[in-house]
Each structure stands twice: as C-alpha cells, then as structure tokens.
Amino acid sequence: MNIDDIRQAADRIKSYIKRTPLEHSHTLSQHLGTNVFVKLELFQKTGSFKPRGAFNKLLSLSAEERKRGVVAISGGNHAQAVAYASSVLDVDAVVLMPRSTPQNYVEATMNYGAVVDLQPTIAEAFGKIKHYESAGRIFIHPFDDPFVMAGQGTVGLEIIEDLPGVTDIIVSIGGGGFGGGVSTAVKALKPGVRIWGVETIGADAMSQAMKVGHPVELPAITSIAKTLGAPSVSSKTLAIAQENLEAVLVVSDHEAVQALKFILERLKVLTEPAASCTLTAASLLKDQFNQDNNIVLVFCGGNLSVDDLCRYAGL
Question: 48: which DSSP letter?
C-alpha cells in the first residue's frame, strides 16, 4: 500500500462516503496551549471511519467475487461498515462477532442486513473464518488488507487538504490498519508531520508488539474500548507503525472516559472511548507542543450506547 493506492481509493469511494469536517476547537486549544483541530470522523455513515476501507475493498472485487458473498470479523465498527457497504452494493454478508460485543453494535450490524454469527471470543471468531472461506466467501479483514488500509488512509488525504500546516496527528490504534493508512498518506505528502498512536490498557496489542519487535497475541481484551480490541496486530501494520509513528501511548479506561466527558460537555460531541483517548494522549504530550503547532485529534468513532454512557459515568 502506498500513496497511489490511497489516491485511487479516494476516487473509488468518493460517491459512497462522507467527507467529514475538520474543525478548530477553541476549547481544546486553550486546554492544551496550542492549536487543536478535530477530525470528526464519527460523523461518517455508521458512526466511524470504517466504511472507507469496507467500500474500497468491496469495490475492488470482481462481479463474480461479489456474488460469492463476503465474511468479516469485528467487535463493532468494522462489522457495521461491512454490513452497510454490502447492503449498498447488494453483496451478501456474514459478520463474526464476539459475544462481548455491545448490543447496539450487534443490532446495528443486523439492521444493515448482515447475518451475525456470535462466537465466544474474538480469537474463536477468527478461527471460524476459514469455514466461511471454504464455502466461497471473500474475507474482509478488519485491518490487515491493503485495500482496507488504503481506504482508511483517505482520512489522511483529507487532513492534509484541509489543514496544509498540520504538524501533529493523534490516531487511535486497534489492529493498526487505520494508523497505517493515515500515516502512509500523510508521510508521503508531508514527511515532517509527527504522527502519534494511542491505545488503552487491555487493548494494547501494538505497543506490546513494538516493545518486543513482533506481533504478540493478547490473552484477552479487557479494555472498555472494544473497538480497539484486536487480539494482535499484523506484521504489516507493525512495520508501518515502526516506520511512521513517533510513539504509541497507552492510557487507562478511566482517562479515556474522563476525556469523553470533557469532549461531550465542552464540544457537544459524543465520542466512544476509542476516540476520546486521543485527547488523553494529547494531554500527555503537552510538553511536545507550542503555540506554532497545529494538532489534529482524529475522533474515529462515536458508537456509544446510552446504557454504556451511563455505566461509564462512575469511572
């Protein structure tokens, strides 16, 4: 995957996805003592950036491949994206999900027309993929796929187009496909931009992989940020992170929820913990910034149920 792949993805998916706003935040700029912008990707259809990659992958398939149907695996946002894109393109879709998936994600995925196959754990869900592939379905990996990564990378193109003077971008890391796509686009166009990744404790597969130099499998996903809950990163996404990211910060669920509350109260935007953690990371990086920096926080998703929001109030 390279900048040409990402530009081709942008052309391929432009009629299917929304170009989300990039807005300056006076509140966050005051809070951090620098110039802060938010990329509101949670306003994308289905509530996250994921349709970009899903559409790019589906549109890359031949007519014969689409007739065979697709299978995906996800704890939330990728599931909805594949289900939605498949419904738009008239492709039959099955989505494997762990039983720990919040009910609002499961219901939304089913409402978009996909068949949901619940499995005890995310690891067991991955283990059942070959069953569906043997029946002819095309697997749409949530992050370790060049078409999926190129689609996600279109967020990076939009940031550079809307804010040519960007100096720093903070992105959430799950399996690393989003960060890989965004960083590849940005580094190709503006190599000097610093890109920072962030994970939560209990969903920190990338930071653990970077420490030892190879992918490691988490025994369980214990963070409330379920959409960051890849059991492991891939060799490809790890290599991109090692090359393009300044660092991957790891924050607590409590810190992500406190940031979520602050964003909701002051910016009037409801993020999920997988997105609000970017503000926590920015606070930890405060000494890296000055009044000349232009920081972009990517609010990657907002699929938080009211029940979970109330439950998190005590964290």
Answer: B
Residue 281 predicted with pLDDT over 90? yes
Question: Which of 140, 171, 205 is where one domain is finished?
Answer: 140
Q: Half-sphere exposure of 30 toward its Cβ, with a 13 Å CA cutoff?
A: 5
Are 10 and 56 part of one and the same domain? no
182 CB-contact burial (10 Å; exposed 0-12 / middle 13-18 / buried 19+):
buried
List beta partners, residue 224.
none
Whether the predicted model's global pTM rises above the 0.90 cut: yes
Q: Is the pLDDT of residue 315 over 80?
A: no
The pLDDT tens digits of the residues spanning 202-254 come to 999 999 999 999 999 999 889 999 888 888 999 999 999 999 999 999 999 99
Question: Alpha helix (H) ranges present in the chain?
Answer: 3-13, 26-32, 51-60, 63-68, 77-88, 103-111, 122-127, 129-134, 146-162, 177-189, 205-212, 235-244, 253-267, 273-284, 306-312
C-alpha–C-alpha distance, residues 194 and 181, integer Å:
15
Q: Clarify whether residues 277 and 184 are in a common domain.
A: yes
The domain of 112 spans 51-140
Q: Which residues of 273-311 are buried (b: 16+ CB within 10 A; e: fewer)?
A: bbbbbbbbbbbbbeebbeeebbbbbbbbbbbbeeebeee
CATH number of the domain enclosing 117: 3.40.50.1100
Residue 229, pLDDT score: 81
Closest of 161, 137, 156 to residue 72, by C-alpha: 137
Do both 109 and 245 map to the same domain?
Answer: no
Max CA-CA distance within the chain?
57
**pLDDT over threshold 80, residue 314:** no
